[in-house]
Write a structure and sequence with these properties.
The structure is a homotetramer.
Chain A (H helix, E strand, L loop, with lengths): L1 E5 L2 E5 L6 E3 L4 E3 L8 E3 L2 E3 L3 E3 L8 H9 L5 E3 L3 H4 L3 H10 L2 H11 L6 H13 L5 E4 L1 H14 L3 E5 L6 E3 L8 H7 L4 E6 L2 H8 L5 E4 L6 H8 L5 H18 L6 E5 L5 H9 L4 E4 L1 H4 L9 E2 L15 E2 L6 H6 L11 H11 L5 H4 L4 E3 L5
Helix pairs in contact in A: 1-5, 5-6, 8-10, 11-14
Chain lengths: ~375, ~375, ~375, ~375
């Protein structure tokens, strides 16, 4: 629906996860007969969950544990694990920073250089555990470190930034030519965030195996306050799913995975992301609440310590149970933070769907939240 | 109205009771000339109110009292009255549980087995009082216990679950064949919750005498948070009333009663449920506030102690007066918790309607609440 | 705009004063060249303000003072002034009642009988001051006391109830035949509340000189909670103004005044009422804040002490200045409670209108409030 | 979209900055390749920021500093700098006034006469610093003081009032003939606030070089409460940008600058103002937060001390850094108060635009804020 803001401007109404809900249809199923499995390239996962490559979420240890539990741990290569031999004391210091000093001190701590030896060491650690290895770089760092990463051996390569486009204009340096980079790489690439149909379609044309939908972090509020930019997730996912469908036709059958990344604070949001057309979800906050998460009950992203213009905060998310409990329960509270996979399974069962691809067709309603 | 959420998804705008209100027309009446009576099958009730089969609302004693006052008490057969010889201490313990232990302990307490002797004993107690006897089972337990229930003698049989469909897919066990079950049963069956036109229409085709509209409990918020599912009640009731109308035509005249079940926190909500097309309402929270209610000022549903994925909470609702005062006043506060029947009567009078069936045609407006 | 709530129900979107605002046009004026005068029947007022016939607002003394200041004081004849020789101690007691006892005690205090001698005495007092005399009865009491009132001498007769219709159905007593009553009466009658086009049109056909738009009190919230009824004022006034226009044509030129009554908490609301098409406004809360107001900083309506189903509360409104300051300033705070006439005048000036009738055409926007 | 409020009134849906956001497109840029420069008449500025002519924002000293940093300081000539030889003690007193006395005392303090010698002295001070000189008068004072101002020498003349129209009707005095005044003046004139297409178009026809969009202050809330007037900024800017486009055609090529003035509390709002079509923004609150700002952490406008009908308040805005930091960072908090120019630059880069005029075409969405 095209709305007139004023004489010289029109706009489209867009929707957040909080604006929508799903509704049951005429059939129901037992949760036991429902499948939540997800396959990308040669890899099949029991649950369609990727961990966000953020210091508060994914360490080598949690990447391994998430892999063992049936998901995909994605290790970020620009955080404390590749800057410090001993990251634990740095994490501990970040956790204990007073509110008004947090951003400034984090800006300092993340100025330590990224070391190639640590990249190799951290990836080897994950590989040794026998789970799929996935690692993430920002577009700005991809050219500098990608060969080290590929040599170290990864199964899935993630390029993740606030907004990633297939056509970046820069004077300072030769910008990353995504199409050529992906073509030359041996491993499948997941790239994003993209929040619109056009941006996602262009990323799909670069040869990416998957596109991250969102802004790469939980900083929606502060991005809106400081940059005026906001792409509510329900619309963003449904738009990018539209790009997947159109690109499938245009490419003669190449299926690019749509991975929702951001705005996923509870199991209801995860359900809605799939309902909007996502194939999988990248989880930050929900995994940061696990007792094993390196953030220790805190959560922060790369934008939180941007040198000139920080656009996020270190936030307290608390701890609700082990990673296994977060994924598979049992839950002792109805707040959607524990048993994420069970909630997804039950939601699919209640609305009568038996696999994720079918569930993308579930009926959706617009029902603003009466808290 | 069909809205585009994004390229690959469309949705319908739906409405909660809080989104709507009713408006007067050109005629007014004295409350005394208004009738609130409701007839289903061979039973006529002075007020169109059923009690919810929840431990905090309906005990044998309150079922009897509600029957005497002109409503229908519906006893739940999967709660403390059929699991414990002495339920009062169990209820007392639940009331006194600290907030952070409540869900876990309730999960334990409701693991006690359901006993057939207690089912017989509780139903006999209600029958002995000379009021209509109604009892409720979940769809999962209906096959196991229905013959005991029917042998014990009920006038109305209620099958109530979070979401009940006419077509349930299961591997674990032979699912309940509602159509055959209802056909073979001697007593009229009320079944639900259903929240959509299609689901309700299929339930009507099973031969049910009435359909419950809603999710079978006050857990709307937590269901939305944990499962992403939400079916706001104003739209749900109006949709199911549409199914009643279409089924009336399709069946050549069989009138299936529409009973709103959920989201009915005050008398204004009850009025709106009828205005949307409900024939009667099943009351949980509003009856839980009576001094005789077994919850003793607390309220909880079956979902609150689900083993793996609890989707509700034990909530404090307080006490506002006796059941008789809750139904017929007098009220000493304008908050819509006391004199439910009087409020319904006055609302009908103010808008000029003389019986419930007529009142379903009252004019409705969309007017989001400015609290 | 006709919206589908569900298959069996459609509804219209309606608007409250808080949903709308007015906007300037290309012309501006000095406030000094703007007229706020209002003429009904043989009476012209400097400001289009009537006081609400409520015990917390209008006493004989404040009716006189409001008349002297250029408005119209409307004395309620079913409150403390016609039930008690000495109403001041009763008012003082009401002011000091603890919150949880207020409704119950007020229900008792208002059971004292209405006395004809006091009706005569109070009206004589106002008449003696040389200002126009206006008095109000509820429809239920109009037949019983109207001849006393008319004999005592009033210039304007107000019949004011929660919802007043031209066609009231009653078994208990012969209902008031408004058309005949108004025809036989010598004085102009203002009648309401009406909240819809149809109800207002029927009231206009009874011969009324004016129609009150609203529910006769500030009890919108509690009426919605307890009865499910709500008629937001922006739409209600614009609808009744439409009835005025259509009746003007139908009657061959009889102009019935539209008087907004309710939802007028600050000068911005008063401005919007006129902008929606009102000729004048009846003020409760805003006058109850005057230091002379008999409520002494508290405010309550007749619904607040209804015997069986109270639908309002005694609320603390505070005191902001003398009646003269409330009407004409100067204000020392920008909250719209003081200098009501000055605000109306400035708003008309800023948007370029020179009298109230013209100002009814001012451009209006829908702009939900970001508090 | 034209909405029916009621039978006799239609309205248009309008939008605030909080209702909208901008979205990325398929291209991104480095912030370094983006230009934020703005040219009006013979003057080019590095950033499109004007300071509001309010005592809490612009002193001769801050006007100079803002000029040096690449913006335009606009000195108000009806505040303390032209009424007092020593304004600092007056400012200090205002800062320290208790809440309940602030409006009354400010009404007194601003009754001191405006002195021509001080106008000359303050403007000379700014000119001596070598930055562009801009000064503001209200329409009411323009005739009285404009010749003094022009003789003192200004590069840009600002006429700023709550609502300024090209056609003001007055009896008390000869109203300002804007068209003639601007024609006869040697310096370019910026005039406003105007909030609608028609009002702005008429102002453009007077020969103004720029039009201020808004109500000339942060008093939107209180103006709505007291006058019922509200023109949300997203719609207002887009409407006036539409007037600019139509006037460009009508005048055969005269480009009138659109300057958003009001509702700009953080960098996100500034971004949105440009996105709606503004060429530049006039900043009050955001500059009042600078440590050099004369308000010392407080902020107030002329309406706050209006004699009869104050429509604003002195508000505490706090201090967040030097003017240089407010403009260019670095930021240590993601709240959009520091590094305004950096945020604008990054927003343009993220959405792929390289200059302000292009950026006016950025895609906009309606996405009500979930705080």
């Amino acid at each position: 629906m095209d709305l007139e803001i004023g004489r010289a401007k029109r706009a489209r109404r867009v929707y957040a996860f909080d604006d929508v809900a799903i509704v049951p249809s005429r059939r129901t199923r037992d949760p036991e007969v429902v499948s939540t499995s997800w396959t990308i390239d040669a890899y099949t996962f029991a649950v369609p969950f990727l961990s966000a490559p953020m210091d508060s979420v994914t360490s080598p240890a949690t990447a391994i544990e998430i892999g063992r539990l049936g998901g995909l741990g994605v290790l970020g290569l620009e955080g404390v694990w590749t800057r410090y031999d001993e990251p634990e004391p740095v994490l501990a210091e970040i956790r204990e920073l007073p509110e008004d000093e947090a951003t400034t001190r984090m800006q300092e701590l993340y100025r330590a250089p990224i070391r190639e030896d640590l990249i190799r060491q951290r990836l080897a650690e994950v590989r040794a555990a026998g789970v799929p290895v996935a690692a993430a770089l920002s577009p700005q760092r991809t050219q500098e470190f990608s060969s080290v990463v590929v040599d170290a051996g990864v199964d899935l390569f993630v390029i993740r930034g606030t907004t990633v486009s297939a056509e970046h204009v820069s004077k300072a340096s030769e910008p990353l030519d995504l199409k050529r980079f992906i073509y030359e790489l041996d491993v499948p690439v997941i790239v994003g965030g993209a929040a619109t149909y056009t941006a996602a379609l262009h990323l799909m044309r670069t040869g990416a195996a998957g596109v991250l939908v969102g802004f790469g972090g939980g900083a929606a509020t502060t991005t809106r306050t400081s940059l005026g930019i906001h792409a509510p997730m329900a619309t963003a996912v449904a738009d990018v799913a539209g790009a997947r469908r159109d690109y499938l036709d245009e490419s003669g059958g190449r299926y690019v995975h749509v991975i929702a990344d951001g705005g996923l604070g509870n199991s209801g949001d995860i359900v809605k992301a799939i309902a909007m057309g996502a194939d999988a979800v990248m989880l930050g906050t929900t995994f940061a609440r696990a007792t094993e998460a390196p953030g220790g009950g805190w959560h922060w992203g790369l934008e939180a310590h941007h040198d000139q213009l920080p656009r996020g905060r270190r936030v307290r998310v608390g701890q609700v149970g082990s990673l296994e409990e977060v994924l598979f329960g049992p839950a002792h509270s109805p707040d959607g933070t524990v048993n994420l996979a069970g909630a997804l399974r039950r939601s699919m069962a209640t609305t009568g769907y038996s696999d994720l691809k079918e569930f993308q067709r579930v009926e959706v309603v617009v029902a603003p939240y009466h808290a």
